[in-house]
Amino acid sequence: MGRFAFIMGFMLLLTVVTEAEYMKYKDPKQKLGVRIKDLIKRMTLEEKIGQMTQIERKVASAEVMKKYFIGSLLSGGGSVPKPNATAEDWVNMVNEFQKAALSSRLGIPMIYGIDAIHGHNNVYKATIFPHNVGLGVTRDPDLVKRIGAATALEVRATGIPYAFSPCIAICRNPRWGRCYESYSEDLNIVRSMTEIIPGLQGDLPANMSKGTPFVGGKTKVAACAKHFVADGGTVNGIDENNTVIDSKGLFSIHMPAYYDSIIKGVATVMASYSSLNGVRMHANTHLLTGFLKKRLNFRGFVISDWEGINRITSPPNANYTYSVEASVMAGVDMIMVPENYTDFIGNLTYLVNKNAIPMSRIDDAVKRILRIKFVMGLFEEPLADLSLAQHLGSQEHRELAREAVRKSLVLLKNGKKPEQPLLPLPKKARKILVAGAHGDNLGYQCGGWTITWQGVPRNNLTIGTTILKAIKNTVDPTTQVVYNEEPDTNFVKSNNFDYAIVVVGEPTYAEMYGDSSNLTILDPGPSNIQNICGSVKCVVVVISGRPVVIEPYVEKMDALVAAWLPGTEGQGVADVLFGDYGFTGKLARNWFKRVDQLPMNVGDPHYDPLFPFGFGLTTQAVKGN
C-alpha cells in the first residue's frame, strides 16, 4: 500500500511539474498568438474582467490588485507617490503594485499608465517640453521623434511603461481648452507629427508588417493616439461637446492622423469624451469597432478616458449599467474607471452573466490587452529598476527641449518699419526692463498638465529656467536687468531703459476649465503693453496655449513673439531673442483678429486673420552679439 501511495504521489507531482512546464503563455519562444490563446483559455471571467479594469493608484493596494485581478493602474494629473518624488520613489511604488499583480493565480503583470503629454509632466525634475501647439510650429517630425524617445526614457526611468500620448486632435477652434494639446489646425502637420509614436515606442522592425502594435523594449513605452475621434471640432470649441460634421469632413480632417498612427504600430487608442453628430464616442460602435478595429485592422486595445463611460448618459452616471454595456459593446477594451472599480466590475459581471455582453466580446478585449503586454515584454521583465534613473531631467534632454523652444517661436512683428527691425536684441546695453508676471513664472511657461492637472502658476513646482533667468544668463555682464511685474509709465520713463521685454499671456489651465469665450490675456498684460510700449522700444512675448486677443495692441509694439507654452527650458527663448539663433517658426494655426470670427480656418469663406496660417518672420543668427 505504501509503495502504491508513493508511486501515485510521484505521478501526481510529475503531472504538476509537467503542467508547469507546459504553460505556453510563459514561454517567450512561443508565437504571440499561441501565448495569448493559452492564457485566455486558463482565465476565469473574474480574471478577464480584471484585465479590462484600470484604476487610480490612490484607490489601489496589494490586496485590491490580487482580489480583483486588476490589469492596469494609472496616475491621474498630480497623482504621485509623494511630493517631489524621486525616480526611486516611483519605481518602488510601481514595483509594489506589480508584485501584487504577479502574485495572483496566473501571474499576469499589470500595465501602469500616465499622462506624459509634453515630457514626463507629472514628475518633479522631469524635462518639460513645449506643448504640442508649439511643436506643430516647428514642422519638424525628426524633432518630435527625438522628443518621443526622450520622454519614453524619462517615463521608463520611473518604472512606468505606458504613456497616454500623443494627442492627435485637429483643433479647429482655439476657444477649446485643450487646443494646446493639438499640433495644428492643419491635418498635414498633425499627420507628420505622428512621428512621435516611433519615438515613444521604437521603429517597427523591418520584418514586421506595418500596423502591427510594437513596443521596443525597456527604454520604450506603449503610446496612445487620442482622442478618437474629432475631439478638436466640437461646436463652439466646448470641451466634451458635440462635433457636427459630414462624412467627408470627418474622414478628410479628423481621421487621417489615425491612419498614420496605426501604420506606425501605435499600441492603444483612447476614445474621446465628445460626441459625433449626437453619438457619444465611448458608445460609437460604428467607428470604434466597425471602422477602427475592422476597417483599419487596429490590433491594439481601445481605452476609455477618465470616467469616460460615465458620461455616455446625460447627466453622467444616470444609468451606469447601461454605460458599461454600451461602451464595452461599442468596442472599448480597457475602462479607465478609475475609482469606483467595484461598481464597474459588478456591473460588467452581471451583464456577461445575463448574456447582455457575449463572452466573445470579453475575450476580444482581453486578447487585445494581453497582446500589448506580451509585445512589450512585461511577462518577461515585469519589474522596473533604477538603471534609467539618470535620464530623468538629464542635461541632454534639457538641451533637446531648448532646441524645441527655439524652433517653436514665431516672430509676428519686427520693427514698426521693416527697415528698422528691433530683433535680435543687443546683449550689451546700459539698462533693460523685463516686465510681466509671465517673465518670471515657470508654471505659466509650462502651462496645464504640469505637476498637477491644471498646472501650477508659480516657480517652485519643478526645476527649470524662467525667461527672466534666461535673459540674465544671456546678456553681457555689464548690462543691468531690471524686473518689474507691473511698472507704471513714470517708472518706465524715469529709468531711461534701452529697451523692454514685456512677457504676457494666459493663466494655467487644462481640459474642462480651459475653455474660453473671450481669449484675453491676463491682467495686467494689456496695461503693461500700453504703459511700457508707449514709452520705450519693446518686444512683447506671448505665453499662451493658443492665439489670443492681441490685435488692439500690435500697433504699439515694436516686435511681437508667440512663444506658446515653452516648458522648463526658457533659455531657448533668450537664445533667439538675442540672436544666438534665428527665428524660423511658422504659424501652425491662424491668428484671428477678433473672437467673433471663430471658428475660422484656412479655406473658410470668412477667412481674414490678423496673421495667416504659415506666417512667421525670420532672422539670422548674429555672431559676436
Secondary-structure blueprint:
Layout: H1 2-21, H2 32-42, H3 45-51, E1 53-56, H4 62-68, E2 72-75, H5 87-102, E3 111-114, H6 132-138, H7 141-157, E4 162-163, H8 187-193, H9 196-201, E5 224-228, E6 242-243, H10 247-254, H11 256-263, E7 268-271, E8 275-276, E9 279-280, H12 285-295, E10 301-303, H13 320-330, E11 335-336, H14 341-353, H15 359-376, H16 395-408, E12 410-414, E13 431-435, H17 442-446, H18 467-474, E14 480-484, H19 489-495, E15 499-505, H20 525-533, E16 538-543, E17 559-564, H21 571-577
Parallel strand pairs: 1-2, 1-11, 2-3, 3-4, 5-7, 6-8, 7-10, 13-14, 13-15, 15-16, 16-17
Antiparallel strand pairs: 8-9, 12-17
Please describe what this structure looks like.
The chain has about 625 residues and is α/β, with parallel strands linked by helices. The protein is about 35% helix and about 10% strand. It is built from 21 helices and 17 strands. Strands 12-17-16-15-13-14 form a 6-stranded mixed beta sheet, with helices on both faces. The chain has a 5-stranded parallel beta sheet with strand order 4-3-2-1-11. Helix 5 links the parallel strand 2 (about 70-75) and strand 3 (about 110-115). Helix 2 (about 30-40) crosses helix 15, helix 8 packs parallel to helix 11 and helix 18 (about 465-475) packs across helix 21. The chain is globular and about 80 Å long. The chain starts with a helix and ends in a 48-residue tail after the last helix. About 55% of the residues are buried.
